[in-house]
Structure formats: C-alpha cells, structure tokens
Amino acid sequence: MRRKIALFAGNDLTSSLWNRTGSRVCFYEHTNYGGSLLAIVNAGDWRGNVGATANDKISSWRAC
Ligand SMILES: [Ca+2]
C-alpha cells in the first residue's frame, strides 16, 4: 500500500482529522479533490472520528 503522509492525514488511512490551518478544510474521497466530499472541518477544529462513510477513504483535502 502506498502511504503518503502530508500535513495531518494519510491517503485512505485517516480516521481522525485535526485542522491546524486557519481555514475551513474540505476532505475528498479521491486524489485531486475527486469523488465524494467526505468531511468539512472548520479552522482549528478536531474530528476524533470521521464516521464510517469517510473512515480510511480520504485521499485529498484543501481549504474550501
Ligand atoms: Ca481514497
């Protein structure tokens, strides 16, 4: 399995999210913001469990 860790989340390995940026961040199912929008986390917020629909599926994210 390819594992690319960047910022605070890993490709298809993410169960929790911590948005340490100053912007709201959207998390997507596939790379390059493709697939479903799985989660939105406000600036500074912590999401301890992203839920079954997003667990281990997130592959990309960006401010939104
Ligand atoms: Ca994925």
What attributes does this structure have?
64 residues, mainly beta, two-stranded antiparallel ribbon, 7 strands, 33% strand, binds calcium ion
Structure description:
The protein has 64 residues and is mainly β. It has a single domain, classed as Gamma-B Crystallin, domain 1 (Sandwich), CATH 2.60.20.10. The chain is 0% helix and 33% strand. It has no helices and 7 strands. The chain has strands at residues 5-6, 9-10, 17-18, 25-28, 37-41, 46-47, 60-63. The strands form 3 sheets. It has a 3-stranded antiparallel beta sheet with strand order 5-4-7, with no helix packed on it. The chain has a two-stranded antiparallel sheet with strand order 1-2. Strands 3-6 form a two-stranded antiparallel sheet.
Averaged pLDDT: 81
Q: What is the SS-derived class?
A: mainly beta
Q: What's the CATH architecture? A: Sandwich
Fourth-level CATH superfamily: Crystallins
Please, how many helices?
0
Cα-based radius of gyration, to the nearest Å: 10 Å
CATH class: Mainly Beta
Q: Roughly what percent helix?
A: under 10%
SSE string, helices as H and strands as E: EEEEEEE
Numbering strands along the chain, what is their spatial order in the largest sheet?
A: 5-4-7
Percentage of residues in DSSP E strands: 25-35%
CATH topology title: Gamma-B Crystallin, domain 1
Low-confidence stretches: 1-8
According to DSSP, the number of beta strands is: 7
Largest sheet: 3 strands, antiparallel
Q: Give the names of the bound compounds.
A: calcium ion
